[in-house]
Specification:
By secondary structure, the chain is mainly α. The chain contains 8 helices and 2 strands. β1 and β2 form a beta hairpin.
């Protein structure tokens, strides 16, 4: 039966606890002058615990290393969030003009929220397979001026703080579009717009 990492860590901790307990009991009982049978049992138990501890030590999780990894990951995430915020603080006269059209400020914010929260990031940039269908859905509904894709890409990067694989997006936007995916994103947008109207 293959042991899980959690089980391995638990066995290692138990064996470590056993070693310390046997040594402590031995020191306490030493003053009571127990018989030879006690030292035989204690010695064999200690030896078994040490062997088990040594074997499982090779597969146990290094808690300090894991903690360092978690701290590094958290620091990287904080840096990325800070970078995104800084990108969004671009002076108004340097900001890329929104290619969205015919939408209220609340509706435009819905689109930006979808871009930021629903489009996944893969390999250092927004997922092209999702972004292209969202943009195409907007264009087909008459809510996006997609004649200048460079401007659209610059605006998306500005609002999300993420990179866009512009070369693949430009090609896929014209050559690789799924009607089913366009409908899915279009429905999502319209549902969000309806929620604004209801509220």
């Amino acid at each position: 039966m293959k042991l899980t990492q959690e089980q391995i860590d638990r066995i290692h901790k138990i064996s470590d606890w056993c070693i310390k307990s046997i040594i402590l009991v031995g020191l306490v009982v030493l003053f009571l002058k127990p018989g030879n049978w006690f030292w035989w049992v204690a010695g064999i138990s200690l030896l078994v615990a040490i062997v088990v501890n040594t074997i499982f030590a090779h597969w146990t999780t290094d808690e300090e290393a894991e903690q360092r990894k978690a701290e590094i990951k958290e620091a990287i995430q904080e840096m990325q969030e800070t970078e995104k915020k800084e990108r969004r603080k671009i002076p108004s006269d340097e900001r890329v003009k929104s290619p969205l059209k015919g939408l209220t400020p609340q509706q435009e914010q819905v689109i930006i929220d979808i871009l930021c929260k629903k489009i996944l990031v893969a390999n250092g940039h927004l997922k092209t397979s999702e972004l292209k269908h969202l943009l195409k859905a907007l264009a087909l509904d008459g809510n996006l001026d997609d004649h200048d894709l460079d401007r659209v890409i610059a605006w998306v990067e500005q609002e999300t703080g993420e990179k866009v694989d512009s070369r693949n997006l430009k090609y896929d936007y014209e050559a690789k579009i799924s009607d089913k995916e366009v409908t899915k994103w279009g429905d999502m947008i319209r549902e969000r717009f309806e929620l604004i109207e209801i509220s």
